[in-house]
Design brief:
Blueprint: E1 15-22, E2 28-35, H1 43-71, H2 84-107
Antiparallel strand pairs: 1-2
Length: 108
């Protein structure tokens, strides 16, 4: 029996946390942590180091994207299939702003 048969008793099971909160219009705090069920040897340190390296690569790309957006704020976003979460979040925020404007207009 093994993982292909559904037995994950000896499998590495990482658990990650991502906490994202806006700081300003163009900056965000991003908190993350990573845990694993395997605590022997250097496995926890290795998992942490690999995760940190991956997030650092993402940070570089995200900061480049933010600089580009700042240079051309009116340029439409071009989403790909893996961007669905970000696109849905932007659409949700736009709806919230629209409702807020409508409520403010109605109150005047």
């Amino acid at each position: 029996m093994g993982a292909y048969d559904g037995d994950r008793s000896h499998a590495l099971s990482p658990l990650g946390f991502h906490g994202i909160t806006p700081e300003t219009v163009s900056t965000t705090h991003y908190f993350w942590s990573m845990a694993t069920n395997i605590t022997q040897g250097d496995i926890p340190d290795l998992v942490f180091e690999q995760t940190a390296r991956t997030f650092k690569e993402d940070q570089i790309v995200l900061e480049m994207q933010q600089r580009r957006i700042a240079r051309e704020p009116g340029r439409p976003m071009l989403d790909i299939a893996s961007d669905v979460g970000g696109r849905q979040t932007r659409q949700f925020i736009q709806r919230l702003f629209r409702v807020q404007r409508e409520e403010e207009t109605a109150a005047v």
